[in-house]
Amino acid sequence: MSSCKIKRDLESCEREIEKLQKTIKQKNKELQEVKAYIEKLSPKVKTDNQTQTDEDNDPQRLLYEAINKDNLIEELSGTKAQLEKELRTAEEELKTSSANPSTPNGQAFITKHRMELVNRLGLLPPILTRLHVRGVLSQEEIEIVEIKPTKSQQNQALLNMVVRKGARAQEYFYLALRESDLLLVEDLCNS
After folding, report:
1. Which terminus of the chain has fewer Cβ atoms in its 10 Å neighbourhood, N or C?
2. For the CA atoms of 71, 72, 78, 79, what is the dihedral angle to 10 degrees?
3. Domain 106-190 is classified in which CATH homologous superfamily?
């Protein structure tokens, strides 16, 4: 892998991390706004010269507002947690790619490890689904792979299709394999 490609990949990861950090900052701001809104809706102590209306004391309305507040807080907290997780993952990938510039691209990986992949690919459905979602394989092509009688023939058919489709398809295959069976990828890269 060329140093220019590595540099572009690192810059891309750094931009993605910056985007995630901005999104987390925005979600924190939204969370603060929701908390402020909740504070505003919380029952307030009335002064002696103020009277409470029936609406202020309506238990159903108060329960509904409390549930809505809790749901908003839970939703924003979940979003924030997911974004923080994505940020950590992106940072880890950045560190990994920086520490290991010899990580192969999809084409080089398949070329080098094709025979091992034919014999060692595990569950195909997660890989096939990822390739289908990314537009690499059609449903008919997935069926052609799945109809093969043996596991190695299925693996061979999948690899043949991906290689025929070119470098971009091979890169998507490599990414799909990393997502679904990272241990296999690491073992092959280290052998």
Report:
1. C
2. 150
3. Death Domain, Fas (1.10.533.10)
**For residues 169 and 162, is the Cβ–Cβ distance under 8 A?**
yes
For residue 176, give Cα distances in angstroms to 2, 56, 89, 128, 190: 22, 55, 16, 8, 19
Q: Could you read off the pLDDT of 129-176 as tens digits, one per residue?
A: 999 998 999 999 999 999 999 999 999 999 999 999 999 999 999 999
| Beta carbons within 8 Å of 165's beta carbon, 6+ residues apart | 136
Looking at residue 65, its pLDDT comes to 72
| Contact between 126 and 180 (Cβ < 8 Å) | yes
User: Which tokens belong to 170?
Assistant: 């091979």
Q: Supply φ then ψ for residue 95, to 5 degrees.
A: -65, -45
Give dist(CA 148, CA 22) in Å, integer.
Answer: 48
CB-CB contact of 35 with 73 (8 Å): yes
- Which residue type, as a one-letter code, is found at position 127? I
Q: Any residues with CB less than 8 A from the CB of 79 and at least 6 apart, and which?
A: 27
CA 178 to CA 109: how far, in whole Å? 11
